[in-house]
UniProtKB/TrEMBL annotation:
Listed SUPFAM superfamilies: P-loop containing nucleoside triphosphate hydrolases
Pfam families: AAA_19
Full protein name: DNA 3'-5' helicase II
Superkingdom of origin organism: Bacteria
GO MF annotations, alphabetized: 3'-5' DNA helicase activity; ATP binding; DNA binding
Gene3D superfamilies recorded: P-loop containing nucleotide triphosphate hydrolases
GO terms under biological process: recombinational repair
């Protein structure tokens, strides 16, 4: 049996209080990893859809799929017929195309590969000039991981008539400079202090994993979550390995020990993603149980085929893991360092903050044995935060 529990948990007191806020107006919900931002987002959608049109938007296709699966299992098929879900990029294209099909004289927008490439000022100007500028007054919009979108996106939403927007965000999880800052988002939605809400309790990570993740905390615009009390008895461990095939065998053994566990393998680029997917699927190795399914998501042209309700191994680039959680996580450290250190130190810290906080029970970092003093200096040195072992012994 590989089936896992994939349903929304009971609301905590602080989460329940946020659901008690009026559904009308603009709201920003802040909280660190594991505080239940997505839990509140999904419950908010159910609450609104009971009487009004509700729309859920996420930047990341994997997060969108994950939330769809959780909501379907938690709310049932009937309730899901009342909730519209989409990725932000797809919805923006469909919205603009809809205006064209209705006979509006709107010029075609330049091709864009992502939501960051859209000219929001041109899009806003075209829609307003068409006379269709106030078309969404009655729709309640809920955005998860809202820090992923630029300020222009929120200016556009306001300009086309959205009057009820609920955004969940963690600005420690912004990975590029093209995303919104807290100040930009607050300014775009004209939020007052009482419109900015905060979650503080970490319900996902063990105490040990939370402390390790907190080492990489870098952006004070989202308050850090409180230290969780749940102790797993397992300190995050850096494993030095001479051959990556040893890491492949370790991951397969972990999956074989309990087929119900969902294991996340996080890499920095597609080259390493292909390596781990290929070898995890094909390496000849004696196992006690059936070989675990190995799934992945490579690029925006692919559909998401990951089943979060069953155990197995999921290999993803770090840009696709925000909002997700796994029982066990392996971070391919050399791969992450190669990509993020070429940007700046903050990019590396934020990536590590996101990646490490995906783990619920156990966290491993995989590194080759070549000396890299610059990388090691950016990892915790305290043994209570990180242990170091040799995988080849």
């Amino acid at each position: 049996m590989r089936e896992r529990i994939l349903r929304l948990p009971e609301l905590s007191d602080e989460q329940f209080k946020i659901l008690g806020k009026p559904k009308e107006g603009f709201w920003l919900l802040l909280g660190g990893p594991g505080t239940g931002k997505s839990v509140v987002v999904m419950q908010r959608l159910k609450q609104i859809s009971a009487s009004d049109d509700a729309m859920f938007l996420a930047y990341n296709k994997v997060l969108h799929s994950y939330c769809q699966q959780v909501m379907k299992r938690s709310f049932g098929d009937q309730a899901m017929t009342k909730i519209v879900t989409s990725t932000i990029f797809r919805w923006l294209g469909e919205f603009y195309d809809q205006q064209l099909k209705q006979g509006r004289q709107l010029p075609k927008l330049p091709d864009a590969k992502s939501a960051y490439d859209i000219d929001y000022e041109m899009m806003e100007s075209n829609v307003r000039a068409s006379g269709q500028g106030q078309v969404h007054k009655k729709v309640y919009l809920v955005v998860d991981e809202g820090q992923d979108m630029p300020e222009g996106f929120y200016n556009f939403l306001v300009s086309v008539g959205f009057e009820n927007i609920f955004v969940a965000a963690d600005f420690n999880q912004t990975i590029t400079e093209r995303q919104s800052t807290r100040e930009e988002l607050i300014d775009a939605l004209a939020l007052d202090n009482e419109d900015v809400l905060t979650l503080s309790e970490n319900y996902r990570n063990s105490n040990e994993i939370a402390k390790f993740s907190q080492f990489f905390y870098s952006d004070k615009s989202t308050p850090p979550s409180n230290e969780p009390t749940r102790v797993a008895g397992f300190v995050p461990t850096l494993l030095m390995c001479k051959y990556r095939l040893h890491a492949i065998k370790l991951i397969l053994r972990e999956a074989d020990n309990d087929p119900r566990k969902l294991i996340g393998v996080i890499v920095g680029d597609h080259e390493d993603l292909e390596f781990y997917v290929g070898h995890l699927r094909n390496l000849g190795m004696q196992l006690d149980n059936l070989r675990p399914p190995v799934t992945t998501y490579k690029n925006s042209d692919d559909s998401v085929e990951i089943d979060f309700a069953n155990g197995g191994i999921v290999v993803l680039c770090d840009a696709s893991v925000k909002g997700l959680e796994f029982d066990v996580v392996y971070i391919c450290l050399d791969s992450i360092w190669k990509i993020k250190s070429s940007v700046d130190e903050v990019a590396f810290r934020k990536s590590m903050y996101v990646n490490a906080s995906r783990a619920k029970e156990k966290l491993f970092l995989l590194k080759n044995q070549k000396e890299n003093r610059e990388l090691m200096e950016r990892l915790p040195s305290e043994p209570e935060l990180m242990q170091i072992g040799n995988l080849d012994e």
